[in-house]
Amino acid sequence: MRKPLGSKSKKRDRSRFGEAGTWLLAFLMALGLWVFVNAGERSSTRTLKVRLDLLDLPGRMVVTNRVPDHVDLQVAGSGFILATIDDSRLVTMVDLANVRPGRATYTLGPSDFSLPRNVEITQVSPSRVAVEVDRLSQRRFVGVPVVLRNARQAWQIVPPEVTLRLRGPKGDLGKLELPAGAVWVDATELLGERTLEVPPEVVVPPGFEVLEVLPKKIRLVPGETAHEEGE
Q: Which CATH number covers residue 55?
């Protein structure tokens, strides 16, 4: 039995349509690839944040000024390459191995940064980093009054003064004056008729460290209140 002629015609139409679809798909893929490659190769710019680390600071030395924790880089190059840079992993370093007390200025240039080839650094900000360094020193503060805070009954502080040993930058430590209330005891929860022994709290400005408090504990004797804060 012979098949109808219309059936063969429909098959040829479907075959032609399939071939045309395949060619159209291939053309669109080629076009997309061409656009992707050309867009990637087109020159672009980007700002990168690079972490700044200070290395090899000599022992018994301390940085006394605020140093930026990152550097901004303005870069130019292939848009595709720039898009692949993860600036959270970028770091540049300033070597302080030979630093001396005082102020030192370090210049940052393109050679201080590791970036992919064909990426140009057009600007570094800041391009100069100032680092102020001083020697660590110690100092004793004798006769520092102990302040009683939030007392709910009368207490006598024994002894009423303590000796502190602090460490910090030599220049700043020599000029340091402890404010009133630098040594204190919180008596909010202290009640009773028995003598108590408590360690005092000490607050010093940023950059200084408390090495020693003598005596380590003070006695609170029920009775007359001495050095009540706010009096």
A: 2.170.120.30
